Amino acid sequence: MAHLTVTQRIEILIFIGCGNKTRTQQEVCNLFNAKYSDNPITQSIVSKIESKFRETGDVKNLPKSGHPKMTQDKKIDIVLSMEENLQSTSTLVASENEVSQTTVLRILRKENYHPYKFQLVQELNEDDPDRQLQFFI
């Protein structure tokens, strides 16, 4: 099915008409394609839009099935729990918020949090150059 905006789908219904002043699906195709030559449609698309409108009373696509999206409140809870305890692990935060560890890591990455641990190699001290000299001598 060609990607049509909601406005274009409504316009197709207007082209069809109502009552005893209706057009055939082919006439609607011709009118629509004349107006929107860059996005042509076929008779089957008109049929699908018309039947969707008759069944649901709307031309919008139905919401996707499956697991619901993460709510904004849950995302905020995850970020706040990491803020409160910076030593916390993603596994612990995931179990506290009843989501997967992958979800926690994805949310934290989007919020510009990066997992890391400080190690002596990554942390420079004032006497590091002196120790380097002693090591090489």
Automatic annotation (TrEMBL):
Name under which the protein is recorded: DUF4817 domain-containing protein
